[in-house]
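Hello, quick one for you while I still have it in my head. Could you read through the record and tell me how the tokens relate to the sequence? No rush at all, and the record is pasted right below.
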Amino acid sequence: QVQLVESGGGLVQAGGSLRLSCAASGRTFSSYGMGWFRQAPGKEREFVASITMSGGRTYYADFVKGRFTISRDNAKNTVYLQMNSLNPEDPAVYYCAARFGSIMVSKGGAEYWGKGTLVTVSS
């Protein structure tokens, strides 16, 4: 089992940047595919990005391609989401997720969730 704690959310102006972090407990972090999802008020939780256990492959939702970058540091048990060029469609609670032994590209694939961190974008 893994526990996930997100941080780094906050208020940013449109066009600005934020970096989210997700710290994972446990000694087998490198055995988990990791991902980021988001949920805006009144909307379904949606996939944002994911990364393989080794960090060698990444996947992105179309609406963040070229703006967001997912990465991981297995020595620090941490996964990151660098968000650039934030726009008024990006505000949401951003959740970190994990799946043992595999990558996920939909919320149905996640086995473990963090509690989320709020991102707000001012125009």
Remarks:
- The chain has a mean pLDDT of 95.
